[in-house]
Amino acid sequence: MLKIENLHARVEGREILKGLSLTVNAGEVHAIMGPNGAGKSTLGNVLSGREGYEVTAGSVTYNGIDLLALEPEARAAAGVFLAFQYPVEIPGVNNTYFLRAAFNAQRKARGEKELDSMHFLKLVREKLKVMQISDELLHRAVNEGFSGGEKKRNEIFQMAVLEPQLAILDETDSGLDIDALKQVAQGVNALRSPERAFLMITHYQRLLDYVVPDFVHVLADGRIVESGDKSLALKLEEHGYVGIGEGAPA
Amino acid sequence: MNDTMTRESSTATALRDNAEVAEALGRGYAAGFVTDIEMTSLPPGLSEDTIRQLSAIKQEPEWMTEWRLDAYRHWLTMPTPDWAKLKIDPIDYQAISYYAAPKAGLKSLDEVDPALLATYEKLGVPLHERARLAGVAVDAVFDSVSVGTTFRKELAAAGVLFCSMSEAIREYPELVQKYLGSVVPTGDNFFAALNSAVFSDGSFVFIPKGVRCPMELSTYFRINAQNTGQFERTLIVAEEGSHVSYLEGCTAPKRDENQLHAAVVELVALERAQIKYSTVQNWYPGDENGVGGIYNFVTKRGDCRGDDSKISWTQVETGSAVTWKYPSVVLRGDRSVGEFYSVALTHHHQQADTGTKMIHLGKYTKSKIVSKGISAGLSSNTYRGLVKMEKGAEGARNYTQCDSLLIGKKCGAHTFPYMEVKNPTAIVEHEATTSKISDDQMFYCRSRGISTEDAVSMIVDGFCKQVFRELPMEFAVEAKKLLEVSLEGAVG
Questions:
Q1: Class of residue B416 by CB neighbours under 10 A (exposed 0-12, middle 13-18, buried 19+)
Q2: What are the distances in angstroms from CA B111 to CA B104, B170, B200, B386?
Q3: What is the dihedral of CA B25, B26, B29, B35, to 10 degrees?
Q4: What is the pTM of this model?
């Protein structure tokens, strides 16, 4: 589904990603771990097309197409979703309205029929149930005045409604207390399916206790320096990032 | 009388061709078409003779002619105001025609020229019996005259008078004499004096004691003819304990010359009466280089004359090259309430200097001001507001909230709140914010699949929510669409 090859990217003239390669297949959950400043969030931003990130070399192929050639909204319509590390507030814009606009914009871009508000609301209520999220969320403005936990839950809720093929979770676990973390993890688990892949960017092993990944990668200094299964995350928890990746191919 | 008038139908055709070119070059101003219709008009120029002719055409009584002449003489002594934050080329008042009307006589809606009905259809204001807006009575003003008022019988049954000002002067002279100029005196300001001298038409509304007007009333103003000014005059009187909600919409064709629109609106609310006045102003704003567009110089004022009365202004201003407008409320009655909700959007070279005045005279009077200014392109958007607490305004309160949203780097937003507090028990609160649409907000929307343009209109819509909530449903939808069109090309 996703093939990243030798990706180099710059932010404000500084090279952050230095030859990152990664392959993700449908149905897989990959965890990307690594110390601060390794380039974890840059990876998420480059994949979703944020401005200010300049790709200088390498390629990203998504379902056979050149992902980097697409505008952010076209990537979304193609099924790429980024759960933000810092979800953005849009004052005065109703959460349900925003989500329906996004949902229908994506359907329209794919040549599918748009949903009217009645049917959309029905869909939203079903998703709320699955995610065990209170419907009070629907009536508020997008992230306005939300607590940190509510913002992250709202990201997962958006993901549930938009049903992406490739979901990138950028430090969705950071700043959550244990109950909120469990709730977010439960949401992610509910969305796992053979057609959908997850890229979970995280600093801590903690989330992986609740969402068990198929693969764990260590990102350091702009490259994947070590890959393994869940046990790699446990090893990191014990020993830290020191010493990881020594002996890995440069 | 006909000797002094000129025919304009051939020039109208030539103008339409111009307008089509402008259409191709310009932005999406959907109301920019010209109606090809035979017109009678006064030749350009302004003098006591012009005013006498105008008054004669309208078959006005002697007192009305004299009233106009008084205003004209006063106007001649007044300097053009220059205190607002606006750049305007000098206006040649002798180059303007002060009267233009479709030629055919107008007795009832059934006799209205089909071209006119089609014009209003195209603007989304159906006047014909079959297609009338459900539950909204409409008075349609085309250049200098009212071309028809709908639902008159139904309103009359409730005792509500709703007709053109010209008709009111003929039919209800005692009411007009009693209230006209009682809120905005003829010499109030330069443009109000000019309007008093030459006003052509507008709407008259009278709601008798205790009556709740059974439907929304609305006036749709259309400037069509070239080189004419529109000087409408609207008067709404709500007697004791009555209620009325009134809506006003405005459009004009695209033309390269600036056209003058100088209106006066007066509202009178007696004891416990409530008037809600909503405007969606979409006069032609000029093209993206600042050529053409309407000069919109308007005096709107409400007088809460009775105790416990309430006047509420809601305006959405997206059109006009220059807007100069401060809908105000004089809170004379004790415990009376004044409200002002405003969205003013400027793009390209548009300039808006708008706001309100809340004059607290009575005890425990309350006012609330919510102003949302949006500037894009090279435009300039100014909020100017006065809150005045006079000596007798015991326990009066005001709350003002003034927010500005900037789109792009070359536009300007300015806020000038003036406060005069002469009573120590009065409370005045003011909050102001200025923000930009952030890159983060744009990326957030786009990463969810929403296009740049849709993201901008969504964010702007959210910004204006507090004001849109105050508009009647149909107007809120129209206002929202209007903002979208007005912002085309603002980002990206």
A1: middle
A2: 9, 21, 21, 46
A3: -50
A4: 0.81
Q: Residue A231: exposed, middle, or buried by beta-carbon count in 10 A (0-12, 13-18, 19+)?
A: exposed
Question: Are A82 and B466 an interchain contact pair (Cβ–Cβ within 8 Å)?
Answer: no
Instruction: Please indicate whether, in this complex, the C-beta atoms of A76 and B461 are within 8 angstroms of each other.
Output: no
**B437 interface with A at CB cutoff 8 Å:** no
d(CA B166, CA B174): 14
- Residue A29: both structure tokens together: 């959950």
The pLDDT score that the predictor gives to residue B3 is: 37
Give the distance from CA A180 to its chain's centroid: 17
| Average pLDDT estimate for B407-419 | 87
Q: How confident is the model at residue A248 (pLDDT cuts 50, 70, 90)?
A: very low
Cβ partners under 8 Å of residue A111, min gap 6:
none
Q: Would an 8 Å CB–CB cutoff place A12 in contact with chain B?
A: no
* pLDDT(A209) > 50: yes
Q: Where are the beta strands (DSSP E) in A41-115?
A: 53-62, 65-66, 80-83
Spatial CB neighbours of B164, under 8 Å, sequence gap ≥ 6: B139, B141, B145, B146, B149, B201, B202, B203, B204
The identity of residue A17, as a single letter, is: L
Give yes or no for A51 touching B (CB within 8 A). Answer: yes
Confidence of residue B8 (pLDDT cuts 50, 70, 90): very low
Q: Does B445 touch chain A (CB under 8 A)?
A: yes
Residue A202 C-alpha, separation from nearest chain B C-alpha, in angstroms: 20
**What is the ipTM, given to two decimal places?**
0.95
d(Cα B441, Cα B447) in Å, to the nearest integer? 10
Cβ-defined contact of B443 to A51 (cutoff 8 Å): yes
The whole-number average pLDDT for the span B222-243 is: 84
Whether residues A90 and B458 touch (CB distance < 8 A) is answered with yes
Q: Min CA distance, A243 vs chain B (Å)?
A: 36
The candidate with the shortest Cα–Cα distance to A38, out of A224, A175, A170, is: A224
Distance from the A247 Cα atom to the nearest Cα atom in chain B, whole angstroms: 37
Answer whether B284's CB lies under 8 Å from B251's CB: yes
- Residue B450 in contact with partner chain A when CB distance is under 8 A: yes
Residues sharing a CB contact under 8 Å with residue B448, sequence separation 6 or more, in sequence order: A73, A76, A98, A99, A102, A105, A106, A158, A162
- Of B440, B449, B450, nearest to A88 by CB-CB distance is B440
B428 vs chain A: nearest CA distance in angstroms?
25
CA distance B271 to chain A (A): 36
Longest CA pairwise span in chain A (Å): 58
The answer to whether A206 and A184 are in contact (CB under 8 A) is no
Q: Return the SS3 of B326.
A: coil
B449–A98 CB contact, under 8 Å? no
B448 vs A98: CB contact, 8 Å cut-off?
Answer: yes
**In percent, how much of chain B has pLDDT > 90?**
42
Tell me the average pLDDT across B171-191.
94
Quick check: A160 pLDDT over 60? yes
